């Protein structure tokens, strides 16, 4: 009270002056508080967003999902401990390309051609998560594995690519302000770094294949230190790619702190690991209970810790939405479970390329200290395509343009409002042979040799049979027929 008493005097003239001063001070305090509140509200409604996508990491590799995991993912677990863990979250497919397409576009992959030979998969007029956020004032940056195509088609072994010309159709042509990464997986040539549209160093040398052991049905086991023969840049070292990507991501976060633009950041870190080649650094070798693969997962986990630490050091961690997931299931066979006592899919059936849950049910963890309650678990069904509507909802867009993100459903209310009654959502289409509607899931026979699944129709009730052991196709023909008609209807609308 002394602050106000200093102006309380007996002389009327001076008292009038004092009253004016007190009034001016009061107005100043109100205005200052209002501005601070407005800035705080702006900051909360427009958080930084960091999306971390692992490659070929299973649901059961993350120890917060699997108490029996032989891999202790302490940093990934931290995201769950300080945020929310989704237990029924799904990638856009059971392999790299369809998952990334769904993540970027809000569309099921069956709506478009997934052949990179036809050019970039995302059309030039297609809105992406990145372009949506950039239009809302975000600085957008990508680091890592694109795998949605460039022009020219880089994987054509017979093509003569002029690397002096820009590579088109990549991240900076689809909504990102900047890009540092590579065109595809770390075992698919040519091997070289790309900055924006230009090679850092063109792939002028040759590397032999690291492994050529035969596998089931003539397919390589694609495990261990596996990569294919092809062109390689002279500065490209396989075991340094993952560390390099983490370094680039940390640098972007550090620059965000120093930026005077005042723009929030959207950073998409698409890791090439623990996809093959499994090449953990020396400091991680022998540290897990699951061999080279487990050690590589540990290295990924340590990198995630670096990202979290960088956000904290930059002073932006409290208002940064961090999402961690993986693009599809692991390459982990029965023999691996027996050898290491580690189940990469956490008891689920299947693995990469399969339509069973192990192929596409993913770790999905979200942390936003300022808004998301700590330690929550959500069993709501979400899929990668939902990210588009969720972020559109986050930045306050009233409507998504027609023909865009047709398969996206916002899960923002589940992040911000806690437990809510279960909601009916449209069916999820994992691929051209798989559809899920509520608890029911139909799998039609696949022709691909890598599917490693049954040759007959399968129908499961996931609420009663999460591990897909009881095929109900003979008991529930009406449900199977309804699901198949739903799937056919969507496929008929495919461009």
- Work out the helicity level: 25-40%
Q: What distance separates the N and C termini?
A: 72 Å
**Reported CATH architecture of the largest domain:** 3-Layer(aba) Sandwich
Mean pLDDT: 89
Q: What is the CATH topology assignment of the largest domain?
A: Alkaline Phosphatase, subunit A
Global structural class: alpha/beta
Q: Beta-strand level of the residues, as a percent range?
A: 5-15%
State the major sheet. 10 strands, mixed
Number of distinct helices: 12
Query: Going across the major beta sheet, what is the strand order?
Result: 7-6-5-4-10-1-11-12-2-13
Q: From the alpha-carbon coordinates, what is the Rg to the nearest angstrom?
A: 25 Å
CATH superfamily of the largest domain: Alkaline Phosphatase, subunit A
CATH class of the largest domain: Alpha Beta
Helix and strand sequence: HHEHEEHHEEEEEEHEHEHHEEEHHEEEEH
Please tally the β strands and state the result: 18
Number of domains: 3
Low-confidence stretches: 1-10, 20-44
Taken from the alpha-carbon principal axes, the silhouette is globular
Structural description of this entry:
- The protein has 495 residues and is α/β, with parallel strands linked by helices.
- The protein has three domains: 2-38; 47-427, Alkaline Phosphatase, subunit A; 432-492, Arylsulfatase, C-terminal domain (2-Layer Sandwich).
- The protein is built from twelve helices and 18 strands.
- It has helices at residues 2-5, 12-45, 74-81, 96-105, 129-135, 241-258, 291-313, 334-340, 357-360, 386-394, 412-416, 477-492; strands spanning 48-54, 84-86, 89-90, 139-145, 178-182, 194-195, 198-199, 205-207, 230-232, 265-270, 320-326, 364-367, 376-378, 382-383, 428-431, 434-437, 440-443, 458-461.
- The strands form four sheets. Strands 7-6-5-4-10-1-11-12-2-13 form a ten-stranded mixed beta sheet, sandwiched between helices. Strands 15-16-17-18 form a four-stranded antiparallel beta sheet, covered by helices on one side. It has a two-stranded parallel ribbon with strand order 3-14.
- A hairpin with a 2-residue loop joins strand 16 and strand 17 (440-443).
- Helix 6 runs parallel beside helix 7.
- The longest helix has 34 residues, at 12-45.
- Residues 1-10 and 20-44 have low confidence and may be disordered.
């Amino acid at each position: 009270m002394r602050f106000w008493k200093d102006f309380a005097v007996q002389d009327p003239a001076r008292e009038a002056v004092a009253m004016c001063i007190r009034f001016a001070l009061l107005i100043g305090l109100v205005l200052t508080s209002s501005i601070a509140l407005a800035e705080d509200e702006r900051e909360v409604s427009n958080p930084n967003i960091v999306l971390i996508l692992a490659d070929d990491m299973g649901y059961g590799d993350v120890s917060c999902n699997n108490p029996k995991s032989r891999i202790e993912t302490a940093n990934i677990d931290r995201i769950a401990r300080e945020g929310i863990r989704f237990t029924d979250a799904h990638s856009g497919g059971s392999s790299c390309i369809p998952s990334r397409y769904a993540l970027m576009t809000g569309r099921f992959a069956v709506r478009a051609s997934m052949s990179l030979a036809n050019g970039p998969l995302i059309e030039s007029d297609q809105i992406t998560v990145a372009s949506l956020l950039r239009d809302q004032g975000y600085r957008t940056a990508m680091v890592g594995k694109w795998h949605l195509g460039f022009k020219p088609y880089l994987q054509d072994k017979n093509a003569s690519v002029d690397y002096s010309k820009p590579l088109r159709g990549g991240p900076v042509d689809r909504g990102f302000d900047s890009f540092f990464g590579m065109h595809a997986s770390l075992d698919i040539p040519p091997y070289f770094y790309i900055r924006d549209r230009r090679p850092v160093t063109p792939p002028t040398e040759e590397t032999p294949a690291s492994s050529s052991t035969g596998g089931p049905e003539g397919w390589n086991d694609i495990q261990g230190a596996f990569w294919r023969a092809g062109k390689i840049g002279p500065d490209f070292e396989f075991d340094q790619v993952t560390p390099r990507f983490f370094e680039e991501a940390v640098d972007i976060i550090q620059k965000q702190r120093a930026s005077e633009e005042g723009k929030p950041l959207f950073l998409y870190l698409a890791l090439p690991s623990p996809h093959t080649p499994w090449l953990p650094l020396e400091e991680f070798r022998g540290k897990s209970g699951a061999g080279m693969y487990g050690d590589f997962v540990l290295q990924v986990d340590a990198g995630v810790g670096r990202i979290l630490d960088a956000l904290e050091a930059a002073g932006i961690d409290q208002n940064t939405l961090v999402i961690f997931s993986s693009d599809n299931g692991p390459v982990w066979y029965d023999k691996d479970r027996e050898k290491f006592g580690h189940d990469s899919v956490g008891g689920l059936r299947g693995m990469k390329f399969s339509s069973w849950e192990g192929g596409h049910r993913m770790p999905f963890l979200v942390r936003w200290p300022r808004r998301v309650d700590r330690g929550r678990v959500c069993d709501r069904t979400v899929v990668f395509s939902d990210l588009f509507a969720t972020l559109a909802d986050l930045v306050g867009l009233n409507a998504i343009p027609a023909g865009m993100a047709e398969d996206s459903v916002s899960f923002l209310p589940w992040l911000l409002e806690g437990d809510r009654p279960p909601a009916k959502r449209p069916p999820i289409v994992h691929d051209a042979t798989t559809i899920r509607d509520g608890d029911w899931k139909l799998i039609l026979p696949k022709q691909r040799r890598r599917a490693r699944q049954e040759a007959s129709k399968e129908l499961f009730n996931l609420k009663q049979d999460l591990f897909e052991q009881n095929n109900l196709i003979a008991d529930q023909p009406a449900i199977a027929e309804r699901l198949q008609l739903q799937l056919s209807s969507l496929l008929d609308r495919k461009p």
